[in-house]
Amino acid sequence: MIGTLGVGLSNLPWLSLSILFPIVCAFVVPFFPDKGEGKEVRWFALIVALITFLITVGAYINGFDINNENVQLKESISWLPNLGLTWTVGADGISMPLILLTSFITALAVLAAWPVSFKPKLFFFLILAMDGGQIAVFAVQDMLLFFLAWELELLPVYLLLAIWGGKKRQYAATKFIIYTAGSSIFILLAALAMGFYGNGIPNFEFSHLAETDFSQSFQILCYAGLLIAFGVKLPIVPLHTWLPDAHGEATAPVHMLLAGILLKMGGYALLRFNAQLLPLAHAQFAPLLVVLGAVNIIYAALTSFAQRNLKRKIAYSSISHMGFVLIGIGSFSSLGTSGAMLQMVSHGLIGASLFFLVGATYDRTKTLKLDEMGGVGQKMRIMFALWTACSLASLALPGMSGFVSELMVFTGFVTDEIYTLPFRIIMASLAAIGVILTPIYLLSMLREIFFGKENPKLVEERNLIDAEPREIYIIGCLLLPILGIGLYPRLVTESYLPSINSLVARDLNAVRSSAKSINFASNESLLLKAPSL
Question: Is the pTM of this model over 0.85?
Answer without folding.
Answer: yes
